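Researcher: Next sequence.
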Amino acid sequence: MTDRLGRADLHIHSLASDGVDGIATILDHVERNTTLDVIAITDHERIDAAVAARTMARELGHRAEVIVGEEVSTLGGHLLALFVEERIRPLRSLRATILEVHEQGGLAIPAHPLVPYPLCAQGFVLRRLLADPDPRVHPDAIEAFNPTMLGRPWHGRVNRFATDHGLPTVGNSDSHEAAAIGTGWTSFPGRTAANLRAAIEAGRTHHHGSFHGTGGQFTTFGRQLRKYSRDARAVVGGRIRGDRTGRDLGYPGGRHRPPRFDEAWRAGRPPADVADQGRADTAERAQAGAGAENRDR
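Model: Next structure:
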């Protein structure tokens, strides 16, 4: 093993929220196509897919550790809650949300900050929190690199803010499809999730990445629209049939209502929905690629 720094992507969405790929597809992509040592699944307002991903990665013996996370919608902007074991309640003040993350023993990192948009924490809000005498409401780091259209124009401003306020920085992909994972990433001493946490707390992380092209993001948006259409049909169909199923949340047992991690997976018998989803994801990506080639001709 070389002495290279560890690599982490701490902002990844799955089918359980507004991502377009299931957990099996995400884990396979990370294992085969990246050099990441740690990832965090951070779906909006839920952690069930992240918990399933952690179990699956461990049992498959994957290189990358999975951190359970959540992207929480607060009244002061989106917040990454990392190393949590229970869902963080949304739609409260940023201060109260950070406090709850810390009460769980987690880390709180504002996502795509300073962008003049309601989903992003603003500078005056963050300065007020950093000046608060209660250290439990201070953010632990700031997402200084986010390769999306939200992050690109404000990258320099976020870096200056981090430097001025002595905040550790992380880089993340904010990926909504597997292919984008690792386009933004964090380097840290060590290789494990525990090493990463210690590095964030000690201010020994660095951010890296490359910005997305606009065309690629529109392709992802198209896949999201098709996902929402499938979700709506699945929800309506489950209600009509009365079979206690719903939209696919992207992990074994994710179609059950209420959703639950399917124990059959542990015995090496992946339910059909996992294989079906993997084939559907592959087919959709191939179709999108073919469409892009035709447009380029």
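Model: The beta strands are 6-12, 38-41, 65-74, 77-82, 107-110, 142-145, 169-171, 184-188, 206-209. The CA atoms of residues 233 and 247 lie 8 Å apart.
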